Amino acid sequence: MVDIVPHPVPHNTGWIEVISGCMFSGKTEELIRRLRRAKFAKLNVKVFKPKIDDRYSNSEIVSHNEQALPSIIIEKSEEILNLVNDADIVGIDEAQFFDENITNVAIKLAELGKRVIITGLDMDYRGKPFGPMPTLLSIAEYVTKPKAICVVCGSPATMTQRITDSKETVDVGATDKYEARCRKHHYIP
Questions:
Q1: Could you tell me which CATH number the domain at 15-146 has?
Q2: Which of 66, 94, 100, 111 is catalytic?
């Protein structure tokens, strides 16, 4: 994959990158790739994920293809500010599960000179903007929107299809509850 951050990279300032799309589009995989590259460059990286996301691990961010990085589990986004003093780069996975204050946290981190890389679902299973993601997308300097593959027709997928009867907006799951779909094959159950 081509490095997404255009050159020249900002100097002596922080910035926000958002990786957002539907489930199974590779958001966490891309976050892990960027963070590993930063570690190779000997930059100090801190990674966070919400406590609610316990699908694959309680101590790591994990992609659907089983790539993983150790992470710090938090309940409220403001906790991040107390844990990143020495960090050059802050990775935040599954931001749609955080409170709306995650936006202020990201701005503060960027103002402190940190590179902030955030992932999250842009839309819920109904195709509606999800939690703080619309605001994060609008304040980011860089936005990446990867696509998945529609399980029905093989077209690029941008929608998350819930395949259970749950009507809750937040229902944490993976292939047991969701599929990637194109707009044509997405429906609200």
A1: 3.40.50.300
A2: 94
